[in-house]
Specification:
The chain has six helices and no strands. It is mainly α. The protein has two domains: 89 residues; 60 residues. The radius of gyration is 20 Å and the shape is elongated. The N and C termini lie far apart (46 Å).
Length: 150
């Protein structure tokens, strides 16, 4: 029972870190943070990978492997990978929320690279991303879709 509590704790902590901390670190502004299904899938995948590592370490330390637990966690991992890959339950609104965070990350990186790059092509890309910041367009599109009930 103690081991089950440990892996539940491992999953929970890693899920929270991935969902809130790591995704926030990549944003140009914390106001760009959104709750979305794809982020839930990714955080679940990270949590399950860490649980798999705990199970493997437990196997090495104690020379015992809980096969049903291992198969269950592996099955969940494959399921969440599949759900993420097909974007299961991701509708237009979820898609736009996900894009807002991706655009925010691109803006953050582009602002940092704008002064550093010595390559014309990269400078052109960073300038284009900064000038065409689409976050407000994505947000207004989301609002329009919500008004029309889509």
């Amino acid at each position: 029972m103690k081991f089950y509590k440990k892996i539940l704790f491992t999953f929970s902590i890693n899920f929270i870190i991935q969902y809130f901390v790591f995704s926030s670190m990549l944003l140009n502004s914390l106001s760009d943070f959104t709750h979305n299904i794809s982020k839930f899938y990714i955080a679940s995948i990270v949590g399950l990978v860490m649980v798999m590592l705990d199970i493997i370490i437990h196997k090495i330390d104690y020379d015992t492997l809980n096969i049903p637990l291992f198969v269950s966690v592996l099955s969940l991992l494959v399921l969440f990978l599949y759900l993420y890959r097909i974007q299961y339950a991701v509708n237009d609104d979820e898609y736009l929320k996900q894009l807002k965070e991706n655009d925010s990350a691109a803006l953050l990186i582009s602002k940092a690279m704008e002064a550093k790059t010595n390559t014309y092509e990269v400078a052109k890309i960073t300038k284009n991303i900064i000038q065409n910041d689409s976050r407000s367009f994505l947000e207004s599109t989301r609002n329009k879709l919500n008004i029309y009930g889509q």
